[in-house]
Design goal:
This protein has one helix spanning about 5-25; strands at about 35-40, 55, 60-70, 70-75, 85-90, 100-110, 115-125, 125-140, 150, 155-160, 170-175, 175-180, 190-195, 200-205, 210-215, 225-230, 235-240, 245-250, 255-260, 270-275, 280-285, 295-300, 305-310, 315-320, 325-335, 340-345, 350-355, 365. Strand 12 and strand 13 form a beta hairpin. By secondary structure, the protein is mainly β. The longest helix has 20 residues, at about 5-25.
């Protein structure tokens, strides 16, 4: 029997085919963040006034620096959401005049060494003065090695991460940008300075003790991306037209960069790109979501891909990309606050913050 479609039926059939084609092109059905949550929990006894970052060790334990007013505590949370330890930082870390405040950043080496970088500063009127930084190793009982001064006044040392050869990298800016490599005990290995126009550096550990560092140019839509060897040799350098960026390490010495072009400084416009060990671009993927100008964002590397964590115009945006640049999934949740930061844990990850908008308690999400 010959079936004859009316004109309206033909248009409806064509529309269905176009929609099906669109779904095939994107390759992704609608997703929700809750589908990727393993557990989430409020920790009402913890506070985040000095919370800057966190790390995850090889056993999956989450380590955080949390505090209330001037008291900083090292907190350890296990993968089953239990707070195992919460130690007050040793008196040796307290600021010494002229410094009157301290912020802390954590890093964990491949062998499991947990290290802390304390940076100090003070205010005179509305002007902030940086007073150097100290390094120490931390044990699971909160006891540290004697803090060692690793950087003097001037630069603000907000960048700190572990390298693949058990060394650590410290980065600071504010005339000029400074990169310092220290050994497992905090002993300086080398020290490099870059232009005073290079600001807000972030970095990631590559193979053989190398590192990938990105720094925006002050007052210009340009990123400086460099690769440094373990001996401090500048091996590669490229520029990217963008305002802000985060980096993460991929397999085979690759460096992934999540960058925001911020067109006309009115909204966010994100892209994720991968560069091989010679800094040749392999792929670039748009990261599409309604992004505000100046919003919080982060890029982390898991065992099987990259995760983008970002503030949206209304809520929280997450996306996972495979190492070949293919989008695995993405989700936007308008009911959640943005994440303060994210921490990789094997094939899973932690989000600090990212709770319901009406919830202002210390919130942790464990997701996959």
């Amino acid at each position: 029997m010959l079936l004859v479609l009316s004109a309206s039926a033909k248009r409806a059939s064509l529309l269905l085919m176009l929609l099906a084609g669109a779904i095939c092109v994107t390759g992704q059905p609608a997703d929700t963040i809750n589908r990727h949550v393993i557990w989430e929990k409020d920790f009402p006894n913890l506070h985040s006034s000095v919370l800057e970052n966190g790390v995850c060790d090889a056993e999956g334990f989450l380590w955080l620096m949390a505090g209330d007013q001037m008291v900083a505590r090292l907190v350890r949370i296990d993968p089953t959401r239990q707070v195992l330890t919460a130690f007050e930082m040793a008196p040796a870390f307290k600021p010494e005049p002229p410094a009157d405040m301290a912020y802390y950043r954590l890093a964990v080496s491949p062998a499991g060494r947990l290290a802390v970088l304390a940076r100090y500063f003070h205010w005179v009127g509305r002007a902030m003065y940086c007073d150097g930084a100290k390094f120490a190793l931390l044990a699971r009982d909160g006891v540290s090695t004697a803090p060692r001064a690793v950087a003097g006044p001037a630069a603000e040392y907000k960048g700190f991460f572990a390298l693949s050869d058990e060394h650590f990298m410290i980065m600071g800016d504010q005339e000029p940008m400074v990169v310092i490599r220290v050994g497992p005990a905090g002993d300086p290995t080398w020290h490099h300075t870059f232009s005073e126009n290079w600001v807000n550096p972030t970095g990631a550990a590559l193979e053989d003790g190398a590192s990938c560092i990105v720094s925006p140019a002050y007052g210009a839509p340009q990123l400086h991306l460099i690769r440094l060897s373990s001996s401090g040799v500048l091996q590669s350098r490229v520029e990217i037209a963008a305002q802000r960026a985060e980096v993460a390490a991929g397999p085979g010495g690759r460096c992934a960069v999540l960058y925001d072009r911020e067109p006309a400084l009115r909204r966010g416009e994100f892209f994720l790109t991968s560069l091989d060990a010679t800094f040749k671009r392999e792929w670039t993927a748009p990261v599409t979501f309604p992004a505000p100008q100046g919003g919080v964002f982060q890029l982390i590397a898991l065992q099987d891909g990259y995760v983008v964590v970002a503030m949206a115009n209304d809520g929280l945006f997450l996306a996972k990309y495979r190492f070949d640049g293919q989008l695995a999934w993405s989700a936007l949740d308008p009911s959640r606050r943005y994440a303060d930061f994210a921490v990789a844990s094997g094939e899973n990850f932690y989000l600090i913050g990212a709770g319901p908008k009406e919830n202002y308690l210390f919130h942790v999400v464990f997701a996959r």
